[in-house]
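Internal QA ticket QA-208
Title: Verify multi-chain structure generation after dependency bump
Assignee: T.L.

Test input:
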Amino acid sequence: MIYIFLISLFFITSCAKKTEEREIVIWHWMTDREDAFSRLAQEFMVERGIKVKFELYAPSEVYSQKVRAAAQTNTLPDIFGILGSPRDFASFIKAGFVEDLTMYMEENNGKWKNSFYPQAIETVSFKDGNMYGVKPGIYGIPIDMMNIQMICNTEILKKAGIEKIPETWEEYVDAGRKLKKKGINVFVSGWGEVWLLEAMATSFAFNIMGPEKVFNTFKGEVPYTDPDWIKVFSLFDTMRKEGLFIKDSITMVNKTAEQMFANGRSAFTFNGSWCINVYKGMNPNLKYSPCLLPKVNRGNPVYIWGGSGSWFVVNSKSKYKKEAIEFLKWLTSSQQQKFLTEETMNLPSNKDAAEKLKGLLKEFALGMKYVTHPNFWPVHETPEVIEKFDKGIQLILIGKKTPFQVAKELDKYKKEQLKE
Amino acid sequence: MSKILLKARFEKVKVILVSHLICILVTIACIFPLVWMVSSSLKTQETVFKDFSLIPKSPHFKNYLIAIKEANFGIYFLNSVFYTATVVLAIIFLSSMAAYAFSRLRFPLRSVFYIMLISTMMIPIPGIFIALYVLLNKLHLINTRIGYILCQINAGLPLSIFLFKTFMDKIPKELEEAAKVDGCNKFQIYWKIVFPLSRPTLGVIAIFNTLAVWNEYLLAMLVFSDKSLMPLQRGLMVFYGSHLTQYPLLMAGLTITTIPVLIVYFFMHRYIVSGIIAGALKG
Amino acid sequence: MSEEKVSKLKDYLTSYLFIIPAVLLFSVFSIYPIFKILQLSLLKWDGISLYPKFVGLKNFIEVIKDKIWWKSFLNAGIITLLALTVQNALALVLAIIVDKDIRAGEIYRVIFYIPPVLSGIVVGLIWNWIYNYDYGFLNHFLEVIGLGGLKRAWLSDPKLALFSVAVVHMWKGFGWGFIIFLAGLQTIPRNLYEAAQIDGATPWKTFLHVVVPMMRPVFFLVSILTILGTMQIYDIIVATTGGGPGYATEVPITRILSSMLGSSRFGYACAEGLIFGVVLLAVSLIQLRISAMMRNE
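Actual output:
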C-alpha cells in the first residue's frame, strides 16, 4: 500500500511544472567546474536578471552521445560544447546546429575577439579553404586554455645531479641514462589513452620536419616511410631500448600515471596543464616544472599540443540567442575568468586574466607560445590512419615491430585509403 | 570395522578442511577490494595512494558527511530506491508470466516469440542510446520517470525470461495436472502453483536486476535533464571528473551505494533457500 | 466454426495474454532500435550530419575484411574459453561446498557476491595497482618470496596482457555462476543424496550420478550466460589496458566503441554490432538446440 502511494507521489511530482520563463540552458561535461559554474549563474541572475541553468552530463563519452542524440531530435540546449575531432565540429556546423559568431566577435573593432588568446580563437575557427567546406568564421567561445608538455620533477633531477633541465633529445637521453643508473624511474605516461601518444609523436614530428611536411603527409604527398617519419618512430624505439619509461606506461590510464608522478615515482611525465589541480590534491609539496618537449631538430622550433581546452557553441536555433551570447561575453570577461582560474586551476582564455597568473599556472601559460593543435591545421589524417599510427607506436614500444615496419604498414594503409 | 570408520572420518575432516581452505582463499580475494574501498574512504586525497595501510592512522569519518552533502545523495537515494523497486517487481511479474507461457502452454509461433524476446540479450546494440533517445523523444517520454523505467524493464526482460524458463522446465508437472483436474484455469495454475514454486529463481532474478538497475547510469544521463529525477550514480559522478578524481570522497560515496545492494542480496539469498524448503515441503 | 475450433482459439488467445506485456515492451523499445541499427549499417554516417550517404553493404564488406576485427573476436574467444572452464569450475566447486552446509555457508554466500557488486571504478583501481610494474602488489609479492625474476609488466606485456585481463574478468564474474549453481543445487531433493550415501557411493560418484544429471539444464544456462557475458566484455579492458598494447587486448565491443566514438563512424559501428550479434545469436541457438536435444534423450 505504502509502495503504491509512493509511486503515485513520484509520478505526480514528475509531471507538474513547466513554466515559460527566460532561461538559458547550458550542457557541459566539466565535473570539476560544476560548483563554480552554478555560482556564476547565480551571480549573473542577480546582475542581469537572466536565468542560466548549467546541466552536467559526465563522463565525456556519455556527454558526446547525448549531444549527438539531441542534435538528431532538434532538442539541443541554447549553449553546449562539442567534444571530438575537428571533423565532428565541422559536421555540427554544416548540419546547421551551430551559430556563426564571427559578427559578434568582430563588433566594436573586434573587442571581444581581442580579449582572447589568439590560439584560443584559432581552436574554435575555420579558415578559408578548410578541407570540410565550412564557411570561414569563428564558431565557438573558448572558456579555458590548455597545453600538453613534458613535465619534470625538479627535486628528483637535483638529487640525481642533473642541474640543467634537458632541452634537446640527446640531453634528455643522457639524463635518462643517469637516472636509470641510480635506479630512478625516468618517465611515466598514460599512453594507454592513445591520444596522449599521438600528441607526443606529432609534436616531435612538427619539430623534426616542420608543419608543412606533416600536412603534406596527411594529404598523401609525403609517405610515412620518409626518413623524417622513421626518425619520429625511432625516438620511441630508443626509449624502449634504453628503458627510458616505466614498462607498463604503454597501457596505463592517465590517472594512474598522474598518481605515480605525483608521488615521486618518476622523474618525467607527459601531461596536460590540467595536472596542476590533480597534483596539488595528491601531493601539495611536489616540486615540478613544465619543460616543453626535448628538441630533436635543433634548427626548428619546439611544438607542443595546446589551445582552448573547453569551449562552448551557441545553438543556432535557440530562442534566446541574444541572451546566450550576452552570458558568454560575461563569462569570458576578465573578472569571471579570474574566478574560474582560482576555483579550478585551469588557464584562462582571457588574456587580461592570464597576465596576473602566478607560479605553475604562469609557467604553463608560457608554453602557449609553442602550441599547435589539430583544430589549427588545414588538413587532418583520417581517424583510421590515426589509429594505426597510435597502435603502431605501441607496437614499437613493446618491441614487436621496428620503426621501419610500422612506417611501411602505415604507408601501405594510407595508399589504400587514398585510392578509395 | 572401526579402522574403516576412522578412515572415513579422517577423509571427511580432510574434505572439510580443504573446502574451507578454498573458501577462505577466495574470501580474501573478494573481501580485499571492499576493505580497500572502505579504508580509502577514510583517508585524504594526499594519503590515499601514499599510505598503503588498510587501517588509516587518523580516519576521516567526515568524508562521509561531505560526500553525502556534496553529492546530494538525499534525492538521488530515494529515486534509486523507487526505480529499482519498480523495475525489479515489474520484471519479476512480466518475465515469470512469459516464461510460464513458454514453458507450459502450447500456442502457435511459441518458439519464434521466445527466441525473439531473448535475442536482445545477445545483440549488443551500438548507439542504442541515441536510438532510444530519439524514440523516447517521439513518445514524449524524454525526461520522465516512466520512460526511464520502461526502458529498463525491457532491458531486463530477456535474461529474466531465459532464466525463469530454464528453471520452470525443471519443475515437475504433476502438481499442475492435479490442479487442472480440480478445474483451475491457466492463471490460477500460474499464480498458485508455478509462481510459488519458482521462488528460488525469483531470488536470482531479483538479485541480478537489482544490481543492474541500481548501478544504471548511462541511460539516466541520456533520458533525464532534471536533476531531481536522477538516480544515485549521478551523485557519484561529482567526484569522478575527466581529469580530477576526489578519491576518498568517491570511495565514501561508493561505500554508501554498495552496501544497500549487499543487504538486498543477503535477504534475497535467504529467500532462495527458504523458497526451496517451502517448495520441497509442498511437493 | 466448430465448437472445438472456437475453444482452441480461446485457449491460444488466453495463452497469448501471458506474453503480451513482454512482447509489447519489446516491440516498442527493442524493435525500433534494432530497425534503426539495420538502417544505419547501410549508411556512411558520422552521428551528426542530417543527410547520411547510402553505401549499401560496403560497411559489412569492410568489417568482414578487417583482420583486427577478427583478432578482437579471437581475443574475446580466448577469455571466454578460460571463463567457461576455470571460472565456472571455481563457481561450481564453491557452490557445492556452500550447498553442503547452507547455514554455515551464509557468510561465504555474501562474500562471493562482493566482486560482482563492486563498482567498476574500484575494480579498475585495485587491479591497476595489483598489476603495476613499479609498485604493484603482484611484483612486490614475487620479490618478497624470492621470485623477483618473474617480475613483469603484466598489462603491457603482449604475451600476458590478455591473460591478466581474463583473470580480472573471472574474478569479477564467478559470483554470478556461483549464485545460479547454488540455486540449481538447492532444487535437488536432499533424499537423493541420502539414497546415494546408503548405496555407498563415493562423493565423486554422487556428483556424477546425482548432481550432473539434475544440473544439466543449469550447466547449459550458466555456459550460455558465460559466453554471452564474456564475449561482450569491455569495461574491464577500458579500465586496464584500453585494448593495448597494440591490439593484444582488443575485443569486439572495444572495436565497436572506437569506431563509434573514436572515429565517428556510426554506420560502420552498427555493421560491426550486427555481425557480432548474429554470431552470438547463432552460438546461443546452437546451444539451446543441443540442450533441448539432450533433454529429450
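Spot checks passed. Chain A has a mean pLDDT of 91.
Status: verified.
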